[in-house]
Design brief:
Elements lengths: L9 H20 L7 H11 L1 H4 L7 H19 L5 H40 L10 H15 L5 H10 L1 H10 L5 H17 L1 H10 L2 H8 L2 H14 L1 H9 L3 H6 L6 H17 L2 H9 L2 H10 L6 H18 L5 H18 L5 H11 L5 H18 L3 H13 L4
Helix pairs in contact: 1-2, 1-5, 2-4, 4-5, 5-6, 5-7, 6-9, 8-9, 9-10, 9-12, 11-12, 12-15, 15-20, 17-21, 18-19, 20-21, 20-22, 21-22
Length: about 400
């Protein structure tokens, strides 16, 4: 076996390590076969351990586990007879092999993590360099995101902090010379770190330029990441958005022609409504949000859910006439299906009420503040409406809390 710690071929190194990890995983399920391909692969690594593992102090534990595995396999091979002693020896050996294989898998995963993080941080040292392979960096970022989203791991966290991965990702995210693709994938990796351990990485998001960079990129991808961060960090992040004067920029994306961008901007505003405290909601209303929402609701992509509710009732009455024994659950499913289809084709339907509902059920406001803002929204709706009928419909939705 060639030395998998050779730094000249990082993709091949990781492929070898992934294969060894899979072998150790398979061995846990079939530890009674001393001639299995999984055992052969790991024993081959043990044979070369003096050349491969002795060079890295991090791999001493793995070397010990491989040595134990070799001893256990030899014991298993010697207990092939039908005596009670051999039977008991095989039972103990197979159980021990399975346990050691689990330990080997853990150590190989740690090895993979070290290699992967080293490769990523090296690639991120100068992400805007035209000589770098953009596809390879995107692949490294995607693999990193997938790894941290597997859940918290103390050893992995130590590696991340030691390598200062967050700073490297933030640098790439904020580098205007980088391609949008690399910046967006760096943004996703930052969001993954927040999910990995919010307590450790939130402070770096709040104190750094991450949020401004996401808004500056101004793509549907960057805004989806921003929405994810708001959901994770909640009111403190909305406070930061408001104090940095970013709310007008976010609202301005409701005016773009790109429908996807307009929709994710709407999602972001709804999240701000849910988690925003008084200052943030005041700022968002002062920017004419209600007027923009009324215009969107009036557009071909708008509409109101009160009308859909009326159509639902009419459809259900017709169906009941046809089938007197209709099941209520079936009716409800059809109702939800009709509403979902309507919202897919009319993403801004009842958007004023949807924003008002976010304030009503959200976490950022006190009860008296919620009541005051609801009245202010109603007042602004009446000012923005082109007719009494339009105002009455939207106000009714706000008052009754129509929401998808």
């Amino acid at each position: 076996m060639e030395d998998p710690s050779n730094k000249e071929e990082p993709p091949r190194v990781l492929n070898v390590l992934e294969a060894l990890k899979q072998a150790s995983h398979d061995l846990q399920a079939s530890s009674d076969d001393s001639n299995s391909s999984a055992i052969k692969a790991l024993l081959e690594l043990e044979t070369e351990s003096e050349n491969i593992l002795s060079k890295d102090p991090h791999l001493s534990t793995l070397s010990q586990h491989l040595s134990s595995l070799k001893t256990l396999v030899q014991t298993l091979q010697r207990s092939r007879g039908h005596s009670l002693k051999n039977f008991l020896t095989r039972r103990v050996s197979t159980h021990s092999i399975s346990r050691v294989a689990g330990s080997i898998e853990t150590e190989i995963q740690a090895w993979i993590d070290r290699e992967s993080i080293e490769n990523l941080t090296e690639a991120l040292k100068d992400p805007s360099d035209n000589n770098n392979d953009e596809d390879e960096l995107v692949m490294l970022l995607t693999q990193f995101e997938g790894r941290v989203l597997q859940g918290f791991n103390h050893e992995l966290q130590d590696l991340l902090l030691k390598a200062k991965v967050f700073s490297s990702l933030e640098t790439a995210l904020c580098d205007s010379n980088c391609s949008k693709r690399i910046r967006e994938h760096s943004a996703s990796a930052v969001a993954a770190l927040i999910r990995f351990n919010k307590d450790v990485f939130v402070g770096q998001v709040l104190m750094g330029p991450t949020i401004q960079a996401l808004i500056t990129i101004g793509s549907s991808h960057s805004f989806k990441v921003l929405c994810a961060l708001i959901k994770s960090i909640k009111s403190p992040l909305v406070d930061e958005i408001e104090s940095n004067g970013e709310i007008p920029k976010i609202i301005s994306f409701l005016d773009v022609k790109d429908l996807q961008m307009k929709m994710v901007a709407m999602d972001c505003i709804l999240e701000i409504g849910y988690f925003g405290r008084k200052d943030a909601i005041e700022a968002i209303l002062e920017q004419g949000l209600v007027n923009k929402l009324v215009e969107l609701q009036r557009s071909e992509l708008g509409g109101d859910l009160i009308e859909i509710e009326r159509l639902n009732e009419e459809e259900e009455e017709k169906e009941k006439e046809k089938e007197n024994d209709s099941v209520g659950g079936v009716m409800e499913t059809k109702r939800e299906s009709r509403q979902r289809r309507f919202l897919e084709s009319h993403p801004f339907a009842s958007c004023v009420a949807r924003f008002a509902v976010q304030l009503e059920v959200g976490e950022g406001l006190r009860q008296r503040e919620k009541r005051a803002f609801k009245q202010e929204i109603i007042m602004r709706v009446r000012e923005a409406s082109v007719s009494d009928a339009e105002a009455s419909t939207i106000v009714a939705e706000v008052l009754w809390g129509s929401s998808p």
